[in-house]
Write a structure and sequence with these properties.
Shape: elongated
Oligomer: single chain
Structural class: mainly alpha
Low-confidence stretches: none
Helix content: over 70%
Mean pLDDT: 89
Order of helices and strands: HH
Strand content: under 5%
Number of helices: 2
């Protein structure tokens, strides 16, 4: 099995996160009202973007960790 390059790791994490971003953003319109939280599309987008950046970093570093083992 060959190792991924850093660029390939980043591409994979970005694609994975793009799919997750879409699912997360759409789900905020359902979960926030269930929790009694008022929000709108702008607030939902800011929250989703924040967690997206965290997800990209997490995916990348976990992938690199396991690639180096």
């Amino acid at each position: 099995m060959s190792k991924q390059t850093k660029k390939q790791s980043l591409k994979e994490s970005l694609l994975n996160t793009a799919v997750g971003f879409t699912i997360s953003y759409l789900s905020t319109f359902f979960i926030f009202p269930v929790l009694g939280m008022k929000s709108d599309a702008g607030i939902n987008m800011v929250i989703t973007i924040y967690f997206t950046f965290i997800s990209i970093a997490r995916s990348y570093f976990i992938r690199r960790f396991f690639n180096n083992k």
